[in-house]
Design brief:
heterodimer, A: 443 residues, alpha+beta, PmbA/TldD fold, 2 domains, 37% strand, globular, B: 484 residues
Chain lengths: 443, 484
């Protein structure tokens, strides 16, 4: 059933129940992932799915029901379910009417060659990457995924917001006897990925980190590659939310407008940045507005959903999650401004430092001081006299983000960074003094 | 659903494949949350689809679709075969499967009160009553409550002749009080953090939790933590409540015994394991008090890892993982069982829905209860008691861990003498379990549910069960998360 037809069927079903205020989200994806380990493809999957989600507003109450059955009877059922749940809910005096129609910019993020990529194409790319790692006498594991997704949001006030994009991801770990290396990239256009180059980088790291030395825990200067910056610094952005501040669960309580990071830290949220992905509107259909979250170390702006904006007398910024939800909003297109250094120059300038490829299992230790713990992984090196001299056993860190972002000595140009601990962002590499490694593991 | 499963199995290929299995799954969910006196999230969802797994040319192919028309299923089956053929271009060896009997069964998990028969306004009423009780303390800045219910019916069919119809109903509920004051955020949760307790039960779980009765204590503790002393740093005897010990089991025993992880399948994402194959039946994993099983059978309890058959059609089993402190077993699948000399899978393959491939996942990995009384566990000398997880982290081989808890207490003479805030502990997995010096008896044993265990690419989120009694560990490193 076409999107317009589905929406009309939802409206008809709602009217039959005496409800005129409805919002729909229709989402679909067609994605495939080729996974390899021990130098062979071992899991190779594809999935195709779509769903319809209906939100009804009834006398100051709202609720949502979702189905992946899109025949007329199922659509009537899901509308009836949303209406019944809304009627059973408590009235909310802060609930707003549905959003009004708006105009949207349409970033070009759909590429036919990525949408149409075949199992054979993925297998060939994987085979080429495996050969690189095998040639180094190492073992490869990783993924190559391609796919497309579409998302449309409509409401009974005439709002219609549509987005579609493709996404490709390639990630590889090269393992030697007592060391490993890792590399990952993502892009809306699979053609922008270079699996062989990523394999070469991972294999080089595995070679350089063999026979790792054990260093004592303590404070070290660290050089964090962009993926490590992303996965650690990326943990704080859910706090740049008016609802989180109102709830007292944000570390920005009593800190907005204050300098909490170094003067060389500036962070934006920009849905239309050329290295970003995702829709240009939020979960209610409000266009995403660029935000200056941090400027010269000072917290300038936070995200507002429509409801949070109404409570604070501010304007919505286009960062709300689909309603109803208890979290409000968050910036999701993070762009961390960089500097004129490079990771290589950071290494060359360091008397003694730890070069970190990747961080792992990052969890919050202290919600207000924004202390996080986690491990280094897959390529941790000792830098001495301006050069990498050895691999080192992996460290556990316990590090506050305000301290970290106050101790940044150099930044590289930002890139689209991809990790495993948070969503992709545009982030630079960073050289940071006094990073706290609290313990060391056995490998 | 049975007809759809048989149609999909037929489409999967017959003579074109060496083996095929299909899972048709219908899921219904309800989620209700409250926040500061209001409904937070009220939603329901339903989903139906089929996942088709084929073994052809020595390799696996998998395709899933929610298009359950004949054409949609045929397309998905053809795609699964195409994927298997593509996999064969980067193959090192042919997949072989441990034998398994054909099973025909219909199984429905025990459920005394169908949670979907309870009205949403009754769900909200119960949560809002808890919310009001929490906010009787004006210092509580955020009161949150939640309930989740799921009914998951799956029809599994395989070319080996199995046809298994299973229905599982799970419920979850809990609440939390957060207090922001003077540059400090403290939180207490009941009965566990991250949503509370989850089990293979109906609405009776919510009634058993008696949340309203516990709300005043939780609010009081959240506020009191602001004036509590910081947990000291150093080596102390550590006593863990059963919920925190459940997560300790999950991270430092459950994940390392996944045989696919040991064999390298997860190396790029979740990592590998320190439990290399040479450790089996040799490694002193823990003290002699430590007995751990992986048990998916109903007689183990109503866990999130309880079922009748796994997603390869293998019956639920109990496997000794650690016996008297010695490492004795992995979790296996039909493909991996042979790597450790098992004639048969021990039934740990699970997928988080129709769209995803089954992987080796924890079922119920539990520490069996000990013989000590709670008074004996607390009374074996001074120490620090910690309750309710706040943060968890472990390295990618599952050696070095660090956990934080919501609240701690200094223990002297077997009594709680001082509340401690921001407690944390860390260590090396085998050193920690070898330091186990007391485990409380079966009357204190609880089968906890972890609803959000992530693994695989694309990532799958699975519910797992972990039974534990409060236990004591000697000379554990405490407080380094907040160290200098």
């Amino acid at each position: 059933m076409a999107d317009d037809t589905v929406f009309d069927a939802v409206c008809d079903a709602a009217r039959a129940l005496g409800v005129t205020e409805v919002e729909t989200i229709e989402a679909s994806h067609d994605e495939a992932l080729t996974r390899f380990a021990n130098n062979a493809i071992h899991q190779n999957v594809a999935e195709r799915a779509r769903h319809l989600s209906v939100r009804a507003l009834v006398d100051g109450r709202t609720a949502r029901a979702t189905t992946n059955r899109l025949d007329r009877e199922s659509i009537r059922d899901v509308v009836a379910q949303a209406v019944a749940l809304a009627r059973a809910s408590e009235p909310d005096s802060d609930l707003l009417p549905l959003a009004e129609p708006a105009a949207y910019q349409q970033p070009a993020r759909w590429f036919e060659s990525t949408a149409q990529a075949t199992p054979g194409e993925r297998a060939r790319a994987v085979s080429d990457a495996i050969r690189v790692v095998e040639a180094a006498g190492q073992t490869a594991a990783g993924i190559y995924s391609t796919g497309e997704a579409a998302f449309s949001l409509r409401n009974s006030r005439g709002l219609a917001a549509v987005h579609r994009e493709t996404m490709a991801r390639f990630s590889i770990t090269a393992m030697a006897a007592d060391s490993s290396g890792w590399a990952k990239a993502s892009a809306c256009d699979a053609g922008a990925l270079d699996p062989v180059a990523l394999a070469q980088s991972a294999a080089r790291k595995a070679t350089l980190s063999r026979a790792p030395r054990e260093l004592a825990p303590g404070r070290y200067t660290v050089i964090l590659e962009p993926a490590a910056v992303l996965d650690l610094v990326g943990q704080m952005f859910t706090d740049f939310s008016a609802t989180a501040v109102r709830d007292g669960r944000s570390f920005l309580n009593d800190r907005i407008g204050k300098r909490i990071f170094g003067g060389n830290i500036t962070i934006h949220d920009d849905a239309l940045h050329p290295l970003q992905s995702g829709a240009a509107f939020d979960g209610e259909g409000v266009p995403r507005r660029p935000l200056t979250l941090v400027e010269g170390g000072v917290v300038r702006e936070i995200a507002y959903s429509r409801a949070a904006a109404a409570l604070d007398g501010a304007g919505p910024t286009g960062h709300g999650f689909p309603l109803p939800n208890e979290f409000g909003e968050a910036p999701v297109n993070i762009v961390i401004a960089g500097g004129d250094s490079t990771v290589e120059a950071m290494v060359a300038s360091a008397e003694r430092a730890i070069l970190v490829t990747r961080l792992w299992y990052i969890r919050e230790v202290d919600p207000y001081e924004k202390v996080f713990t986690g491990m280094t992984r897959d390529g941790t090196f000792l830098v001495e006299g301006g050069a990498v001299t050895a691999g080192v056993r992996n460290f556990r860190f316990n590090q506050g983000l305000m301290e970290l972002l106050s101790n940044v000595e150099a930044l590289s140009a930002p890139v689209r960074a991809s990790g495993e601990e948070t969503f992709d962002m545009v982030a630079p590499g960073m050289k940071v003094r006094e990073f706290r490694f609290s313990e060391v593991t056995r490998f | 659903m049975k007809d759809t499963a048989l149609l999909a199995l037929d489409a999967a290929g017959g003579s074109q494949v060496d083996y095929a299995d299909v899972r048709v799954i219908e899921t219904r969910e309800r989620e209700v949350t409250t926040k500061n006196g209001k409904a937070g999230h009220v939603s329901s969802s339903e989903s139906v689809g089929v996942g088709i797994r084929v073994l052809a040319s020595g390799c696996w192919g998998f395709a899933a679709t929610d298009d359950l028309t004949r054409d949609g299923i045929v397309r998905a089956a053809a795609l699964a075969r195409e994927i298997a053929r593509a996999s064969a271009t980067a193959r090192k060896r042919d997949v072989s499967l441990a034998p398994e009997d054909a099973h025909q069964a219909v199984w429905v998990s025990p459920c005394r009160i169908d949670p979907f028969s309870i009205s949403v306004d009754r769900n909200l009423g119960a949560l809002l009553a808890v919310d009001a009780e929490l906010r009787r303390s004006p210092a509580v800045t955020l009161a949150e409550g939640s309930m989740q219910f799921t009914r998951h019916r799956q029809v599994f069919a395989s070319t080996a002749g199995s046809l298994i119809d299973q229905t599982r109903v799970t419920s979850g509920a809990g609440f939390a009080a957060t207090c922001y004051k003077g540059g400090d955020i403290q939180k207490r949760s009941y009965p566990n953090s991250f949503g509370g307790q989850y089990q293979l039960k109906g609405y009776e779980l919510v009634e058993e939790l008696d949340m309203l009765a516990h709300a005043p204590r939780i609010a009081e503790e959240a506020v009191a933590l602001h004036s509590a002393d910081q947990c000291p740093e150093g080596e102390f005897d550590l006593i863990l409540d059963s919920s925190q010990l459940g997560l300790q089991i999950h991270e430092s025993i459950g994940h390392p015994i996944e045989l696919d992880r040991v064999l390298g399948s997860e190396a790029n994402y979740a990592g590998m394991s320190f439990l290399t194959l040479d450790q089996l039946d040799r490694l002193r994993y823990g003290s002699e008090l430590v007995h751990v099983v992986c048990d998916a059978r109903l007689e183990h309890g109503p866990g999130l890892g309880t079922f009748a058959y796994d997603d390869e059609g293998v019956p639920a089993q109990s496997t000794d993982i650690i016996r008297g402190g010695r490492f004795t077993g992995y979790m296996t699948s039909r493909e991996t069982a042979g790597a450790v000399g098992q004639p048969r899978s021990n039934g740990c393959m699970r997928a988080d829905g129709w769209a995803r491939l089954p992987l080796i996942r924890m079922t119920n990995v539990s520490l069996l209860p000990g013989r000590q009384s709670l008074e004996e566990v607390f009374g074996m000398g001074d120490g620090i008691y910690m309750e309710t997880n706040r943060s968890w982290s472990i390295d990618d081989k599952r050696y070095h861990f660090q956990f934080g808890c919501e609240i701690g207490w200094e223990i002297r003479g077997g009594k709680r003498v001082r509340m401690l805030k921001n407690p944390s502990y860390s260590g090396i997995t085998t050193e920690f379990w070898n330091a186990c010096s007391a485990i409380a008896g079966p009357e204190h044993w609880t089968l906890w549910g972890v609803p959000n265990c992530g693994k695989g690419q694309p990532e799958q989120v699975m519910g797992t069960g972990h039974g534990a009694s409060p236990a004591r560990f000697r000379k554990i490193r405490i407080g380094s998360a907040y160290g200098g």
